[in-house]
Task: structure prediction
Amino acid sequence: MSNSKNPTRGETKSQIPNSTSENWFASWFDSPYYHILYKERNYREAQIFMDNLTHYLNLPEHAKVLDLACGKGRHAIYLNQLGFEVTGIDLSENSIAIANKNANASLHFQVHDMRHAFDEKYDAIFNLFTSFGYFESDEEHLKTLIAMKEGLTDYGFGVIDFMNVNNIIANLVPEETKTVDGIDFHIKRYHLDGYIFKEIDFEDQAQQFHFTEKVRAFSLQDFQDLFSTAGIYLLDIFGNYKLKKFHKTDSERLIMIFK
Result:
């Protein structure tokens, strides 16, 4: 976790950690502007996905589920409402503080780096909404996969919900402006050196801000290579939140079920 002070609305770019550094995600995900920009995410779609996924996995009643990189906990909260014992972890202290407002006896949240081993074992570990591929080296991504594998019970399932890079790259919108809460977010997207970049520039309270999202453009084959190295067995692949068959070019998502 970044040791820098958490940014609040009105701080200048110079006061915010360098978002293009190796740990860009630590500063951007902890920024209030991240949650402003993405506030309109489809919660109903997320719930339908969780309904379909838990039904497919046939998880036992009161199964222990880990929501890995949970953000403010939208998936974790709904999974708990479905009757599961849920733990949500995230690197962002601000996100966990918000998520903790919904904590109860069977719903817990904590700050944790996904590259490190977990204290418990789970019947399912979910890594959702392209919350993978943030790191600079494959070794770090491999550490995450190994932590997931070792964090599963003997009959547990791991799930990674990632973007379908072939579809994303083919339909990349180079530039757009999104206005949210009176802030004009100017967004540029491009594919370079095996990463998909999103440059985000905006002004708030007469101050200029800049953040960069940088995610590895992992293909299915890339994941299969990592899984093989980690000793992970890929069970099934889906292409959207309705769990339809994965198509290399047309599918919106790459959803992988593994042990």
The longest helix spans residues 43-57.
